[in-house]
Design brief:
This protein is 73% helix and 0% strand. With 189 residues, the chain is mainly alpha-helical. The chain is elongated.
């Protein structure tokens, strides 16, 4: 019975912290407010989590990345077009919809943590990915800023879908429309 109560308390702390961090951010969220949301004494949180940083890390852990592996798989494919996206990359992005709050915390609200540069790291990985894809296609040489612009637009598009999330079907449709626009241009819409 005691173990069931411990897991229930851990779950309440987790959910309260997720909401508190999401409404505020890491820096402005206060452990006392998390405890109030969870309906427990503040000190009890420290029985489960060493500090606010450890609690935040527990929340964002599920969205810390198998992303580089996804991109490597896509780059290894002989198909470098939109079909490759639908076959490999889309699964990763769609899986993030299940943890969109956690992903938004990681990308937008992690200032003051070791993850504060997560968004920049994701953009950098996508820059490298776009460069590899275009080199494999044998297209002309481009200024490096183009890769950065395309990658930053990709990440912001994904984040905007998550920020304005209505439901899973809507989010997948928006993601696919953005990708069609990216690969095929305005004539695809």
């Amino acid at each position: 019975m005691a173990q069931v109560l411990k897991e229930e308390i851990r779950k309440r702390i987790f959910e309260a912290a997720l909401d508190e961090f999401f409404e505020k951010d890491f820096k402005t969220a206060i452990m006392r407010d998390i405890a109030i949301r969870a309906g427990i004494p503040t000190g009890l949180i420290y029985s489960y989590y060493k500090n606010k940083q450890a609690l935040f890390e527990e929340i964002v852990r599920p969205v810390i990345w198998n992303f580089p592996e996804t991109l490597k798989e896509a780059e290894a494919s002989s198909d470098m077009g939109m079909e490759n996206y639908f076959k490999i990359e889309r699964k990763f992005y769609v899986s993030l919809f299940d943890r969109r709050k956690e992903f938004l915390l990681l990308m937008d609200k992690s200032l003051g943590t070791k993850y504060a540069d997560a968004k920049d790291k994701m953009i950098h990985k996508i820059e490298q990915h776009i460069r590899v894809i275009l080199q494999k296609r044998g297209t002309q040489e481009y200024d490096d800023i183009l890769f950065h612009i395309l990658a930053a637009n990709h990440v912001e598009s994904l984040l905007e879908i998550m920020r304005h999330y209505k439901n899973r079907e809507w989010a997948e449709e928006m993601l696919d429309l953005v990708k069609k626009q990216f690969f095929l241009g305005s004539d695809s819409l």
